[in-house]
Amino acid sequence: MRHRVKTKSFHRPKEQREHLFVNLACALIENGRIETTLPKAKALRPFIEKLITLAKKQDIPSRRLLNARLKMNKKAADKLFKEIAPLYAERNGGYTRIYKLDKKRRGDDAQMAIIELVDYPFED
């Protein structure tokens, strides 16, 4: 039974799962859009939205918490703090968007999705 269990385990230990989310979040911060499986995208959404909300405070304790949650990935933390958080200063949530893709992953037939930051200026 999964009573009161909010997150999926992805059949990984806690440390691996945390690092998975940190790596996905850093990739999303650096690129603005990533392609991953649908369950991972759905699990990543609350993680990244809490980081953006924390970065919007623009103070030193928030920056320290951000560095701790991103496992000291300073490049991603700086970009989130300096570039991405000011974009969403007026927005009260809903910083990400998930698109389901028609294609499935070839190896295991997993449903694929794109998760992206809303109103992010992409270089196309």
From TrEMBL:
It holds the Pfam family Ribosomal_L17. Keywords: Ribonucleoprotein, Ribosomal protein. GO terms for biological process: translation. It comes from the Bacteria. GO terms for molecular function: structural constituent of ribosome. The keyword Ribonucleoprotein applies. GO terms for cellular component: cytosolic large ribosomal subunit. PROSITE patterns: RIBOSOMAL_L17 (PS01167). Part of the 50S ribosomal subunit. Contacts protein L32. PANTHER family: LARGE RIBOSOMAL SUBUNIT PROTEIN BL17M, RIBOSOMAL PROTEIN L17. HAMAP family: Ribosomal_bL17. Belongs to the bacterial ribosomal protein bL17 family. This is Large ribosomal subunit protein bL17. It comes from Hydrogenothermus marinus. The gene is rplQ.
